[in-house]
Amino acid sequence: FHTGDEAIIIVTMILGISVGLASMYATQGAILTTLFDSRHRLSAVVLVREPTAALIAGPTPAFAAWLVLENGGAPWPVSVLFLFAAAVAAGTVLLAWRRLARVESD
């Protein structure tokens, strides 16, 4: 899908970042702090968030560029990569919800 229209690209990027990232970061603090006991909360949240950012999110752009290069410039492998990442994220949210339900019932 090639629009060739810079305005559509800019609006899409603004919406994706402002709505997508903002909604993720807005809920992340509440979810992560509820998942862990207060005695271990800081260490647990840091161990959950920071290695993920460094080890997974850091090299993702280079990996995506490599996927495009290896597939003759086709962008679909990057779409598959992001679909996989979204599925993993959805699965972890479901697991977190189960944990939160158990914590609230205790």
Q: How does this structure look, described?
A:
The chain is mainly alpha-helical and 106 residues long. It has helices spanning 6-35, 41-57, 60-70, 76-105. 0% of the residues are buried. The model has no long low-confidence stretch (mean pLDDT 85).
Question: Strand pairing plus helix content: what structural class?
Answer: mainly alpha
Compressed to H and E, one letter per element, the order equals HHHH
Residue stretches low in confidence (pLDDT < 50, at least 5 long) are none
Q: How confident is the prediction overall: mean pLDDT?
A: 85
Based on CA atoms alone, the radius of gyration comes out at 18 Å
Number of helices: 4
Number of strands: 0
Strand percentage, roughly?
Answer: under 5%
> Based on the structure, what is the oligomeric state of the protein chains?
single chain
* First and last CA, distance: 50 Å
Helix content: over 70%
Main β-sheet description:
none
Can you tell me the overall shape?
Answer: elongated
Strand-helix topology:
Blueprint: H1 6-35, H2 41-57, H3 60-70, H4 76-105
Helix pairs in contact: 3-4
Descriptive keywords:
106 residues; mainly alpha; 4 helices
Characterize this entry briefly.
By secondary structure, this protein is an all-alpha fold. It contains four helices and no strands.
